[in-house]
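idk why but the lab printer keeps eating my pages so im just putting this in chat instead. protein + iron/sulfur cluster:
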Amino acid sequence: MRGPGGFVGKSIVYFAGARSLYRTHSLEKKIERLFNALGLRGSIEGGDRVAIKVHWGSEGNTRYLRPIYVKKIVELVKKAGGTPFIFESVGHGVSGPRATMRYLEVGFSHGYTPEFIGAPVVLGGGFRGNEVVEVDLPEGIQLKRVSLVREAVEADKLLVLTHFKGHSEAGFGGSVKNIGVGCTGKKGKTLVHFETLPYVDKELCDGCKLCLDTCDVKAISMMGETAYIDHGKCWGCWKCVAKCREHFSGDQSKTAIKATLLDSRSHQTRVAEHVAGLIKVLGRERVYAFNFLLDVTPLCDCPSFSDVPIVPDLGILASRDIVAVDQASLDLVNRAPGIPGSMIEEVDALEPGSEKFRFLYPYTDGGIHQLVAAEKLGVGSRDYELVVLEGDDVDILFNRLLRKIEALMKLKRKIPEKIFRGEREIRDLLSQERFSDAKERILEVMDELEIK
Ligand code: SF4
Ligand code: SF4
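predcted complex ->
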C-alpha cells in the first residue's frame, strides 16, 4: 500500500535492547550489529565523506549522547572504507565567534575530542552558522525555502545519532528534530522558532541608527525615521537584536528589533520542512538514523542541567527511515513504565501505555505533529515493522542458566558433567555470535536442569 509519503509497505526499524549480560552483547557490539543490519558496511564506498550529526549537550548538561557510542560508529565507518567527521551546529541563541568557540570547547569537555572520537569534530555551518545551502521547497506547508548546513548537504552519507528525549517546544526530540533544527544554520534556527527573521517595530524604534553598522551583510537601512531590515539579505545572526537591546539598556519589553515565537504546531511543521529540504537534496538513500533510548530525560540537551530519566533505559533503534525510527521510539517510550520520582510521576503518567510527552507538554500534542508533517512531506513513513536483533534474548537466558548453576553449587547438589560441558559450548557459541545455536543449546540445558 502506498502511504502519504509515497512509501510502499512498512519501514523497517531495527531494535537492540539496553540490557547487556555478556561480552558479545555489549552496547558497542549491538551498535555494530545495527550498523550491519542497516547495510552500512556494504554501502559505504572507499573515500565516502560520512557526516555524523550529534548533539554534544550544553555546558552543565550531563545526559547527552555518550561519546563512546559515537567513537564506535566512527571505527565502523573507517573499517568500511569511509572518511568520517562529526558535526554539531550553533544555536540561534549562540552569537558571536567567542560564544561559538566556547560551544566547541564544551563539546571537547564532554568527550567529543578528535583524539577520543577518532575523527575531526567541526561546527556545521561554520563558526557563524551562515555557511548554508538554500533549498527551494514549493511543497512546504509554511516555508517555501529552507536552509541547511553544508556539512550535511554535501556529505556522501549522513548518519544521524540522536539521544531520544522530551522537548518542551516540540514534545520530544528524535532524529527528525536532530536534522530539522540541528542541521540548520542561524537562519533556519530562527525560522523554526520564530514567525519571521528579526523585524523592526516602528512604534518603538527611535531612529538612533546604532544597529545599522552592526549588521555584517548590510541588511539594515533607514526608511524615513525608523530602521528597516531587508529579509532577503538577513541571515538571522541576532547581532542587531543585542545592539538594540543595549540601546534600551537591556529592557527587553522596549527593544525595537524583535521576533515573535512560534506556537508548537508551527514549530514542528517547520522542523519537518527542514528535514524535507535535506531529503530533497541529499536523497533518502544516503541518510541513516540511530536513536538512543538511554537516559530518556524530560527535557532536551540544550538546558545547562539534566533531570533524571522518565522511563528505564530501553535500547537503540536504527532505520533508513527517519520518521519510522522516531515513531517506533515514541511508541516504545509510551509503552514503558514511568520511573517513580521522575517528572513523569509529577504529571501522573507512570502507567505503561500513557502518552508520556503529551502529559509533560500538553500544548505540543506530545510532538506527534512533527511526524505527521514529515510523513506528509514525503520524508518517511509512520508505518513500521520493529525487527528485534537476533540474540538479544540470549544473554537474558544465559544469565538465568548461570545463576541456576551457581545456586545448585551452593546447595552442593551434584552438577552433571555434561552441563559444564554445555556451558563451555554455549560460551563458545556466543563468542562466535552464533546466537540461534546458543539459544537452542541454552534451552536444552535449562530443560535438563528443569529451569522454568
Ligand atoms: S538600534 Fe533599535 S532603536 Fe536604534 S535604529 Fe536600530 S532598531 Fe531603531
Ligand atoms: S539584520 Fe540583524 S539579524 Fe539580520 S543579519 Fe543583520 S544583524 Fe543579523
